[in-house]
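YM 10:42: DUF3124 domain-containing protein sequence, as discussed on the call
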Amino acid sequence: MAGAEELRQSKGQLVYVPVYSHIWHGNLDSKQKPQTLLLSSMLSIRNTDPQAGLTVRSVRYYDTSGKMVREFMPDPSSLGPMASTDVFVEHKDDAGGTGANFLVEWSAERPISEPIIETVNAYFFGPHSLAFTSPGRAITTGTK
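YM 10:58: structure's back
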């Protein structure tokens, strides 16, 4: 099959995913601070392999200083072929700060096509709306 050698496959990864639960905007105030806009964030984990499942080993949420805020998936969870799962950080949850992130660990019994792991960061109130995605990036491979 043409191009098959270019497909990225793995038996597992630890994936870093940026979360934008706060963003700075506007002008600086009298204390030289910008305005803060709180966003909700949905982490999406999508198994892209049509033949094989994967196991989500953990989903950990960290704050700006690198402290773990919470474990969203304390027990491994299986995702079948083409299946998806997600976790949600609500708009009013400001524990993560401007540098919040997820670490997602997944594994598979054999090399499979890499899942798509990203956040959708959103703000929808009244006539104002903002939404954007943040892709995950593998920081280690071959997890157990």
